[in-house]
Amino acid sequence: MPEATRSETARGAAAELGSPTLGSFEPSPKHPRMSNTRLMTHGSEALARWVCFLCAFVSVATTLGIVYVLVSEAGRFFTSVSPLTFFTGTQWAPLYNPPHFGVLPLLCGTFLIAVGAGLFALPIGLLSAIYLSEYAAPRVRGFLKPALELLAGIPTVVYGFFGVTFVTPILQRLFGEGRVEVFNAASGAIVVGIMILPLVSSLCEDALRAVPRALREGGYGLGATKMEVTTRIVVPAALSGIMASYILAISRAIGETMAVKLAAGDSPKLTLNPGESIQTMTAYIVQVSQGDTPHGSIAYQTIFAVGLTLFAITLLMNLLAAWFVKRYRAVYQ
Predict the structure, then answer these.
(1) Which domain holds residue 268?
(2) 111: closest CA among 1, 321, 274?
(3) Tens-digit pLDDT profile for residues 156-196
């Protein structure tokens, strides 16, 4: 049969069956059920996108609202009290007559707690992270890591009473009751150090475990021991994450409230003696916020001035941690 005749016969058969041919192709209309399913998928994706956007917007708006309240109320305070007097004064007694508005005693007490907690928690947290990451068997690690992180779930009030009833008597027996008061900075620093220990250990372990296995194997291939690989290869490679965990833990210690208030007391003193009672910025905010201070008074506005100072300190430390990670972060392929 000639080629033209076969082609005409195929077109005729296709026309009778109602099927498209190569010469006359027409797209079939979309199935209505498929179209509805696609519309529902696009609608759910748009809804999820807007819900996520609203959650992010609420977080940012809340932060901006906190900053606005602190700045506006602290501005009213600084119209009555000179910032120079506030940041350089050595006496803090806003509730007495005559009042004194030198915030240095609160800053000194806050940093005394933060430094003491860091001296206690940072080396212990790093060493425990090294053990869990490099030495512990999987079964031992599976038991010790949740047990260590359980410390983060204990209420801060419990830590405060633990400091008063357990830590302080031990310090008094070691150094004498005349040198260690019932409420003292050393007890507060120790309990805060115990509180931030899980944070330091967990972040340091994550940084150590993020170091590639190839670096360890390269050290072993050169004849290095386990200790040499850990101290000369793994820890330096994870230095940015370790330092970031240190800074975040110290900022956490600066913002602690109830444990410090119960263990360290409420005596604003410009002292470096850890055996004396001190007062931190957060403890002062709790003291004035109990309802005895008239709203709108200068003593009431000191809450926001101290809160703004505390916010600025923690913000700077978080920015320092972010800069340190970005500056010294090692990227491995």
Answers:
(1) 87-328
(2) 274
(3) 999 999 999 999 999 999 998 888 899 999 999 999 999 99
Tokens 């009290």 appear where?
81
Same domain membership, residue 318 and residue 262: yes
CA atoms of 116 and 171, how far apart (whole Å): 14
From the centroid of its chain, how far is CA 21? 66
SS (H, E, C) 248-292: HHHHHHHCCCHHHHHHHCCCCCCCCCCCCCCCCHHHHHHHHCCCC
Task: Please count the structural domains in the chain.
Answer: 2
Can you name the residues that pair with 92 across neighbouring β-strands?
Answer: 101
Q: Are 113 and 192 in contact (CB under 8 A)?
A: yes
Buried b (16+ CB within 10 A) or exposed e, 54-77: eeeeeeeeeeeeeeeebeebbeeb
Residues 161 and 235 placed together within one structural domain of the fold: yes
Non-local CB neighbours of 180 within 8 Å, separated by 6+ positions:
168, 171, 172, 186, 275
Q: What is the CATH number of the domain that holds 247?
A: 1.10.3720.10
> Are 228 and 304 found together in one domain?
yes
Q: Per the domain annotation, does 31 fall within a domain?
A: no
Q: Where are the beta strands (DSSP E) in the chain?
A: 92-93, 100-101
Stretches where the chain sits below pLDDT 70 are: 1-36, 38-40, 291, 328-333
Residue 302 near residue 74 (C-beta atoms within 8 A):
no
Contact 263, 269 (CB under 8 A): no
DSSP assignment of 119-131 equals HHHHHHHHHHHHI
Measured from the Cβ of residue 2, the count of other Cβ atoms closer than 10 Å reads 7
Encode 320-332 in three state secondary structure. Answer: HHHHHHHHHCCCC
Query: In 3D, which of 119, 187, 200 has the Cα closest to residue 159?
Result: 187
* pLDDT value at residue 331: 57
Q: Which pLDDT score, from 0 to 100, does residue 176 have?
A: 86
- Could you tell me which residues come within 8 angstroms of residue 176 by beta carbon, excluding any fewer than 6 positions away? none
